């Protein structure tokens, strides 16, 4: 179901479902997309967990700030939303750029979360250049199934080209690798074997930098595991929790 919250000065929309008596899990989307992108995973997790999928400010149905928020501001908005939703220590499951927002929150406010799952984490330390990342995005479109393209296009249109491009700039400027060693909660890095955005070398480094991190690679999968491989990803999340 849809729910609305006043959080950090923004009106924030979230999809909420699953078992109210289950462990709370918050799904964090990436650039240009929204909570709609997380629905297949939310359904999978909902059989045993209480699942929340907010639209970060600027995306989906949430309020649109005049300019795109940076990583720190988005993490602050996510924390404010946790307060509004009365969630004390949920698990965070993030995909793509959402991983950078989740890492920022986990590093700055570790007491606010119980577990961290980074699915296809960005941005690769060894490819932090716009042309390289754009080329990888285009390759990702060839790997993912066509139905996802319509979801991404619809959400990107709602967010706007300017906001998405500005957010991309914030992602490129974010030194995520410097924050990972300070995250002490149990953490899981999940990569699709065919993911062009999150390379194997980078995913291994992310897992190595996390004090309690581990890496799992799903064979034959791409970047959007939350959409294309929700069953396997859901099983891994359940095992971690």
Task: Describe the structure in brief.
By secondary structure, the protein is of the alpha/beta class. The chain contains nine helices and eight strands.
Percent in strands: 15-25%
Number of helices: 9
What's the CATH superfamily, by name? Alpha/Beta hydrolase fold, catalytic domain
Query: What's the N-to-C terminus distance?
Result: 24 Å
Query: Which CATH top level class fits?
Result: Alpha Beta
Layout: helices, strands, pairs:
Blueprint: E1 2-7, E2 10-18, E3 24-28, H1 39-45, E4 50-54, H2 71-84, E5 91-95, H3 97-108, E6 116-119, H4 130-143, H5 146-159, H6 161-172, E7 187-192, H7 200-209, E8 213-218, H8 225-228, H9 230-240
Parallel strand pairs: 3-4, 3-5, 5-6, 6-7, 7-8
Antiparallel strand pairs: 1-2, 2-4
3D architecture notes:
The structure is a single chain. This protein is an alpha/beta fold. The protein has a single domain, classed as Alpha/Beta hydrolase fold, catalytic domain (Rossmann fold). 41% of the residues lie in helices and 19% in strands. It is built from nine helices and eight strands. It has an eight-stranded mixed sheet with strand order 1-2-4-3-5-6-7-8, with helices on both faces. Helix 3 links the parallel strand 5 and strand 6. Helix 1 crosses helix 9. The longest helix is centred in the first third of the chain and has 14 residues. The chain is globular. 48% of the residues are buried. The mean pLDDT is 96.
